[in-house]
Amino acid sequence: MNRKRNKDGNLKRTNRTQILLNNREMHAINKYCERFKVSNRSKFMREAIITEVLKKFDENLPSLFEEEHPTLFSKLNK
Q1: pTM (2 decimals)?
Q2: If DSSP codes are grouped into helix, strand and coil, which group holds residue 32?
Q3: Cβ(29)–Cβ(41) below 8 Å
Q4: What is residue 11's predicted lDDT score, i.e. its pLDDT?
């Protein structure tokens, strides 16, 4: 299986994080992955977290009439 290599070095995953789950949370995730045939749990959790983060950013965008406040993305682009 030949995969295309991502040429953008900024997208390479080099940062690691860990989370702890209690038994009920782990059981729920296992059931979800089993029911919906999730084969890559890392990808599933990463996408779920990023989806929630981006949704919160969208909900909290400044309106036209608010003073502009710096955001995470404006800080990264500078």
Answers
A1: 0.63
A2: helix
A3: yes
A4: 84
Interatomic CA distance for residues 78 and 73, integer angstroms: 9
pLDDT digits (tens, 9 = 90+) for 21-61: 999 999 999 999 999 999 999 999 999 999 999 999 888 87
Query: For residue 17, what are the CA distances in angstroms to 36, 45, 46, 75?
Result: 25, 12, 11, 22
Specify the amino acid at residue 38: V
CA–CA dist 61, 52 (Å, integer): 15
Q: What are the tokens at 1?
A: 């299986």
Round to whole Å and give the CA distance between 40 and 78.
34
